[in-house]
Amino acid sequence: MTTSRRETNADAPPSGTPDIVIITGLSGSGMSSATDAFEDLKYFCVDNLPLTLLPTFVRLIQQDDGDSSDQPRIRRAALVISIREGNFLNEFERQLRRLRAESSLNVFVLFFEASDVALQRRFSETRRPHPADTGDGLPDSIRIERDAMAHVRALADLIIDTSEHTVHTLRRYLLERFSPDLQGTPMRVQVLSFGHKYGGPRDIDLLFDVRHLPNPYFDPELRHLSGHDRRVVQYLKAQAETIETLRRFGDLLDYLLPLYRREGKSYLTVGIGCTGGRHRSVMVANSLAKSLRRRGFDATAVHRDVRKTKRQPSGLRRPPPPPPHTPSGKARGQS
Description:
Layout: E1 20-25, H1 31-40, E2 44-47, H2 54-61, E3 77-80, H3 88-102, E4 107-113, H4 116-126, H5 138-148, H6 150-154, E5 158-161, H7 167-178, E6 188-195, E7 206-209, H8 230-237, H9 240-262, E8 267-274, H10 280-294, E9 298-303
Parallel strand pairs: 1-3, 1-4, 2-3, 4-5, 6-8, 6-9, 7-8
Helix pairs in contact: 1-7, 4-5, 9-10
C-alpha cells in the first residue's frame, strides 16, 4: 500500500481544501483512479480538458458574491490534463500562472508517476498503446514521456509515486489527503513488513530494521514457516532482545504518532525490514499493529514479501532420487 514519494513545491498554494485540483502525470500512473477518488470527495471531474477551455471552466467555479441566482454552482473541480492534450506541454505553465494570478481560487497541481517497471507492467496488462508510442517499443515510449513531462513535474505541488500503490491504497490516501473534514478521523497507520533483499519500499514515513534479531531461517524446523506461525512467534518472543525491541519501538511510536497527527497527518506508513521479509519483520509488524490498535489507532499490518519464498508443506520432503542403474538393471553398488 502507500505506497508514494511525495515532494512539495516551494510555490505551493495556501493550505486548505483546493478549489481546483489539476491531475496530471505519466500515462499509466493512476490518473483515472485518482479521478474516481475525487468524485467520491464531491469534486466535479473533467477528463482530458483542453487547456484553451481552462479559463472558461474557471469562471464557472469562481465565486461571485453579487450573484443571487439559484442556479447550481460547481464548488470544486478536479481536471485531468495529460500529454494527450495537444498544447499541454507548451501552454501549461503560462495557463497555470495566469489562473493563479487572475482568480482567488486555491489551485493545486497533483502529479502522478511510477517506475519504468511498474508502467511497463501496467501497459502490458491492459494491452493499451502508449500515447507517446513511436514504434520503438514501450520502454522508449515511457522514457520519451518522462523526459517531456519533466518541466510539468517541476510545477507540481504534490508528486505521488504509485509504483507500489494498489487502486485501493491510492484511493484511501487521496481521500484522507484531500478530505475537507479530517476532524475526529482516527489516524491510520500501516505497518509494512518487507525484505531488504527485494529492495526498500518507496512510501515510508518511519523505517525500523530488525535484522539484529535472531533469524528463524537458520532453524531447519522454522525455515519454511512465516512470521504468522505461532512457532516462529514463540521462538522470537523467547529472545530477550525481541521483547526489548518491541517495547522500544512501541514507546517511540507512542511519542511520535500524536505529533504527526497534530501536524495534520492522517495516514502514516511504518516500515519493518528484515533480510527476506518472511520471519522477523512479519512477526514484529503484526505485534506493533496489534499494540497500536489497543492504543486507539486504526492500524493494519501489510506484508509485502512474505510469500516470495516458496513454502514447503510441513512434514513433506522431496524424496531422494533413485540410485542410477547399470545397463543390466542393477543399481551401482549392488552385488
